[in-house]
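Feature request, filed as a ticket because there's no other form

It would be nice if the structure record came with a short human-readable summary line next to the tokens. Right now we just get the raw output. Example of a typical job, pasted below so the devs can see what we mean:
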Amino acid sequence: MEERRGRLAAERLLAQKQAELFAANQRLGEHALALSDEIVETRHEAEVLKDEKTQVLVNLEKANHEVDIAQRRLWESLETIKDGFAIFNAQDDLIIANRAYYSIFDGLDEVKPGVSYLRILEIITEEGILNIGDTPAAEWIAAMTERVRQAPIESITIKVWNGQFVRLTDRRTSNGDRVTLALNITETIRRESALKEAKDKAQTANRAKSAFLANMSHEIKTPMNGIVGMADLLADSDLTDDQRLYTETIKSSSEALLVIMNDVLDYSKIEAEKLSLHPRPFDLEATIHEVVTLLQPPVGQDAVVLAIDYDVLSPTHFIGDPGRLRQILTNLIGNAVKFTPGGHIVIAVRTQVAPDDARAEVEITIEDTGIGIPEDKIDHIFGEFNQVEDERNRNYDGTGLGLTISRNLVELMQGRIWVQSTEGEGSRFGVQLSLAVAGETEPPAIGAGGRALIVDASRISRSILARQLHALGIEADCAGSIGAAPKPGAGAYDLIFAGDDEDGTPGAQVLAGLSGAAGAAARVLMTNSPEATARAPQESNHLLRKPFLRRDILRCAELIAPAGTGTGTGAAQQPAARVQEAQKMRILAAEDNPTNQLVFRKMVKDLQIDLTLADNGHQAVEMFREIRPHVVFMDISMPGMDGKEATVAIRQFESDAALPATPIVAMTAHAMAGDREDILSHGLDHYLTKPLKKKDIVFQIEAHAPPGILPLHAETTETADIA
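Raw output as currently delivered:
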């Protein structure tokens, strides 16, 4: 039993072990099968990896080849350029450099990859490779070392021992390396030096030209003042026909020379961009009238009618540069006069005021009935030294600069200029400017409901006067001659305007012929003669100078009694009261040139004044203290003490004595850019350029005449020239 029990136990144990062995064999088989699959997969992956490795090796070889080519090309390029190139690492050791960088070290073996930047600086100072001037070597090395530590690194120019200039430009890379580019700028430096030298020479030449022009202007204008002034005075004297012809020739030739000289001076300023504007309040209508009066043909040669068409109710006071505007108008109106042998020239002004009354668009047109301009030459005329060349205008002299200067001046004023023309019929030049409106009182609207009769040969003059009277509430009938005029009955007209008629009858006779049947109507003689005041006929109550000014037309309109009855008893007809106890106005004129003294004395001889002349600045100051003049005319260039120094001394005397400032007017031939500002900055109030004009001298005296003095003009009749 025990054996049997032992055998059964052994059998059970054997069966158990067999089962475990079977299970183990089964698991081993499964593992072997899985391992076999893994081996197959691994072999496949190995094959793929082998293919990929092969492709990678091919690509790597190709990339290495391309890198070698790119590196070789880059290096060859760096070696080809004439500028130095180097790379330093973050520790400032040289990594690589091209031959151009090494060339300045003249084959020093120590300068090669691995050498430190500090050592390179030491070699430079030891070998004298660079010109560091008087700077100590240690200080220069420290400055250069500190320079590359900045961010960003500032570029610097250094000079090599052989005279070449090198511009060092350094930049840090993202990994801390430093790239240095040494540009050879020797040629650039030389070109800049040559340009600077040429610029200095050009500026020196320009200054010499300006000084020459200024001196020539002064030297020419001083004797020209005597020529023009004496010719002007001589023309007012009693002369034979031949003498008058000679005098007018001298005067016109001298003035033509002055125009040419002024054109050249102005063009020189424009060319040098030194022409500037000096805005100030001015009367536009008066400015135009001054130009027209200056350019008016002589009496007896008035085949051309000059007329100003300025709306009687438009503003006339603006802020601008009247001198430059007068220059523009002189060129444009002067051209119209020159190229218009007969007919008329009308200067029309139209204004459009902004809603805030601060600025106005001003359009000035000059329309003539002259020879006109061919269509293909219109753009040509504004060019420099350009004139229309044809058989009709070759007899007209000029520089060809007038319109060029005018165009530049208009553009400087932010305006525009244009021209319209028909050959053989005439031209129309226009200027448009935007000007600030100066404060002024609007002219009163008469509104009397009166009537006027206008008899004059000029249709343009009749039309302008009638239109302006209409704006004042006065209706006008117009006629070209006595025969064509309505036959007025007593009281039919409140005003009669008479000028020379179409039949050649002088204005005085026309007025006399109309006055007999006109009753008590106010009578106005229209004339363009400046001497008409002294020769006014008894039939004339008043004179109206052509071209008409707004204030003159207003005064004529005021001749109508308020009720419009035609009685002609307005205040304007009352004779001026005379001042019996008044003294003469005292005038002091400082002028070192005897001829100019004579010219000045003759220009004011018709005025009731006490004139004192001084030969230099010292005398002017002494005489000022002695006579205390009302106005001083001061020449600028005088020996010893010039006009500016004399003015400073006079102003100091006035200040010390607590006296009011006396008006001092400069008389000078200095007319270059900056002369006006320099002269006025010394205390002078006004500025007149030579050659002096009688009307300018008289205007300054009249403008500063104090109350209580004798009338400047000794008139004995009740007739007053309201022009």
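Something like this underneath would help us a lot:
The longest strand covers residues 426-437.
Residues 1-80 form one domain.
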